[in-house]
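stage 2 :: seqdesign
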């Protein structure tokens, strides 16, 4: 009998070429595929809630996979952690309804972007934050954060989706952002954004453009104008992947 499982997992994305399977490159999905096959003998393709990019981390990514194995859910999680590398951990495994799908069933996601502001970044943090010790008017970024809340077309902050381009179909770039906030916490300036979905590189492109506001190269009015332009070339450069985390997925 085939059973459908929901896997909640955390990973350090530094050494991986993102979530999605790629030929001859280490990926989260590919590593999970190999671990499941090693345990059950089944060839599968677990579906993630989204495709995190190379170097991006996750605190609670969700994947769904159907298996014929009789292994109980609790034991499956323990067994997977025994064969997965330490940089990927299965937090929970739940048996779910057959129609549950990690991506299609998702209702909201939260991402966090961390900027380390002190002059010297501790070496054991370097791969988990974007180190930016230079002058920033952080108050301007904090004040502008709410500009993206609500329903908008985020074309200006979306990289071209390679899968959509390959398939030749038009992507709907409208998303609803429920909350958007910059906050100073100790030595870090942290951006937290929650929405019904996110486009390719969207959070990193938002972070990069907010940084331009902090540098006083852009104003809040400029940011609002860029959003309305629906033109990726109008926004700033993509912020580095190392500072980004998928925090949670809601169903």
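stage 2 :: out
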């Amino acid at each position: 009998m085939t059973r459908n499982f929901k896997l909640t997992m955390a990973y350090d994305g530094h050494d991986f070429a993102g979530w999605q399977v790629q030929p001859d490159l280490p990926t989260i999905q590919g590593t999970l595929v190999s671990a499941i096959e090693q345990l059950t003998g089944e060839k599968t393709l677990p579906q993630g809630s989204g495709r995190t990019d190379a170097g991006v981390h996750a605190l609670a990514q969700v994947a769904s996979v159907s298996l014929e194995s009789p292994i109980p859910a609790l034991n499956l999680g323990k067994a997977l952690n025994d064969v997965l590398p330490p940089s990927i951990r299965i937090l929970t495994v739940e048996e779910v309804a057959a129609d549950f799908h990690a991506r299609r069933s998702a209702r909201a996601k939260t991402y966090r972007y961390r900027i380390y502001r002190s002059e010297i970044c501790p070496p054991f943090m370097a791969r988990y934050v974007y180190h930016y010790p230079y002058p920033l008017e952080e108050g301007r970024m904090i004040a502008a954060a709410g500009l993206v809340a609500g329903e908008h077309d985020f074309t200006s902050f979306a990289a071209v989706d390679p899968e959509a381009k390959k398939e030749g179909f038009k992507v709907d770039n409208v998303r609803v952002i429920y909350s958007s906030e910059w906050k100073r916490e100790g030595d870090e300036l942290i951006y937290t954004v929650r929405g019904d979905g996110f486009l390719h590189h969207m959070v990193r492109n938002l972070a990069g453009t907010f940084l331009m506001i902090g540098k006083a190269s852009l104003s809040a009015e400029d940011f609002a104008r860029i959003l309305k332009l629906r033109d990726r070339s109008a926004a700033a450069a993509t912020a580095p992947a190392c500072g980004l985390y998928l925090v949670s997925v809601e169903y």
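stage 3 :: structure notes
- The mean pLDDT is 96.
- The longest strand covers residues 174-185.
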